[in-house]
Amino acid sequence: MRREDIKNIIEAIMFAYSEPISIGELNSIINEELSSKEIELMLNSLIEEYKENNRGIQIIKLENKYQMTTNKEYAGFIKKLLEPKKRKH
Questions:
Q1: Residue 54 vs residues 24, 86, 88, 89: alpha-carbon distances, Å
Q2: Is the pLDDT at 87 greater than 60, yes or no?
């Protein structure tokens, strides 16, 4: 499998799975002959791509796991979406 395909798979997994995920978990899902270092390099590449393009989402590292989150710069908009709707009488 091409490196770019694997990177896209990592991105898709992180988008669908909202919880933090470890490199080991990603490696077992992808099931390719990859070292942890290779997956870490792909994750770091994705992190940089999101930063460089100032995207609405980002990938962050939490201890030994990674998570896709919304960019805190846009938190106010997400908060509006998640607020309970006011009831109309």
A1: 28, 33, 38, 41
A2: no
